[in-house]
Amino acid sequence: MKRQRNPCIVCGRPVASLLPIARYCGVCRAAVADIRRGIHRQIQAAALPHPSEFDCSDCGKPATEYEHRYYALPLEVEPVCTSCNLKRGPALDVVELVQARLAMTGKTKGAKPTKDWSKYQVK
Ligand SMILES: [Zn+2]
Ligand SMILES: [Zn+2]
Known about the structure:
By secondary structure, the chain is mainly alpha-helical. Helices cover about 30% and strands about 5% of the residues.
């Protein structure tokens, strides 16, 4: 059986990676990385303790990172471990934020914005 490439959850273009967890095309992944860099700066500026000082909110193992439900609220975070972060899925506003960013930078060529990306969310 031929493996199908996932459509990018933001713009619907095919995702280059065949990994089942790959969610973004190259353009959108770059935009997400950009958003995350901005958030990281705000977390550092707010002097939040490193997430490894906490236990994972979901499973109680040592946390490794902060998890965002909304990137628009960069300081509303919960410490989680890597596997729980993956299970939680992308931030609920990441598609909106990246779509806005693509529109701003004119990188919408070939994009078919996906509205139905709720299936990627943790129920
Ligand atoms: Zn995309
Ligand atoms: Zn965990």
